[in-house]
Amino acid sequence: MSDATPAAKRTQSTADAPGGPQIFLSYSSDDSCEASLLAYAIETLLAKAHVRVWTFQRDQAADTRSVATSLKDQVRRSRAMVFIASPSTLKLGASQWMELAYADAAEVPTYVLLHRVSYAKLKMKERGTPPFLIAS
């Protein structure tokens, strides 16, 4: 049994991963074009550090039996999560909310980008936004 914290375990496993550190990019399928552009920008800007951005559309294996388990594993392997919150997230964001919960549970630092949505709209209780997303 290891005494390392989840964050320390994640850092150790990510540092040993082939290809370098990973960033998990969470987004609605409606925002896949913007997500692709952001992933490209991050990987280009951080190329010297061999940072790789994991996206569902590009990197999720089609033959994976349990997508939820795969997503959880990818979040845990990541050094950080970039979470794109948009109107689509608020409308149909169940899988994004789960990815956010996985990151919270694994203590993965999460950076929220608001895309075509205001913070005030994100905070509206009737939208069902997870409390830890809007906690400041």
In words, what does this structure look like?
- The chain is α/β, with parallel strands linked by helices and 136 residues long.
- The chain has one domain.
- Helix content is 49%, strand content 14%.
- The protein is built from eight helices and four strands.
- The protein has helices spanning 6-16, 32-45, 56-59, 67-77, 87-92, 94-105, 119-123, 131-134; strands spanning 22-26, 52-54, 80-85, 110-114.
- A four-stranded parallel sheet has the order 2-1-3-4, sandwiched between helices.
- The model is unreliable at 10-16 (pLDDT under 50).
Residue-averaged pLDDT: 84
Gross morphology is: globular
Q: Helical region count? A: 8
Distance between the termini: 34 Å
The parts where pLDDT drops under 50 for at least 5 residues are 10-16
Features:
single chain, four-stranded parallel sheet
Summarize the structure in short:
The protein has 136 residues and is an alpha/beta fold.
Detail the topology: elements first, then pairings.
Blueprint: H1 6-16, E1 22-26, H2 32-45, E2 52-54, H3 56-59, H4 67-77, E3 80-85, H5 87-92, H6 94-105, E4 110-114, H7 119-123, H8 131-134
